[in-house]
Amino acid sequence: IGMAYIVIGCVKTDPDPLQRAVALYAGYAAVAPLSESERSVLAVLVAGRLATSVTMGAYSLSKDPGNDYLKLHAEPGWEALELVLEADPAVFIGRCEAARAALCEAN
To answer: How far is CA 44 from CA 1, 36, 41, 64, in A?
Structure first.
């Protein structure tokens, strides 16, 4: 969930929003490493959380079209979802693991 929302938060301003998710993973996994099976589905889980968020946001906005808060998160949410879906899951988890390893070596 955190990885999904960190990408939403910086998708408009960061040239590599996935790097923020990678950094979050590195910090978490340095303390509580994920199993191989957990790592293998991580990108799908992040995309699933984003899909849930944008779907619920669209539904809520259809019920309350004047809700500016919902409008603020709609476009970045869709952009974040597209970004995660376009990323190669193996490359993404490779970046995550490399960042975790570097963090562990530094400490």
So the answer is: 12, 14, 5, 30
DSSP 3-state of 14: coil
- Cα angle for residues 38, 44, 45 (degrees, 5° grid): 65
Instruction: Give 68-100 pLDDT, tens digit per residue.
Output: 888 888 899 999 999 999 999 999 999 999 999
C-alpha atoms less than 13 angstroms from C-alpha of 70 in its C-beta half-sphere: 15
Please return the burial class of 30, using the count of CB atoms within 10 Å of its CB with bins 0-12, 13-18 and 19+: middle
| Sequence-ordered list of residues with C-beta below 8 angstroms from that of 63, at least 6 positions apart, any chain | none
Band of pLDDT at residue 30, cut at 50, 70 and 90:
very high
Six token digits for residue 54? 């944008």
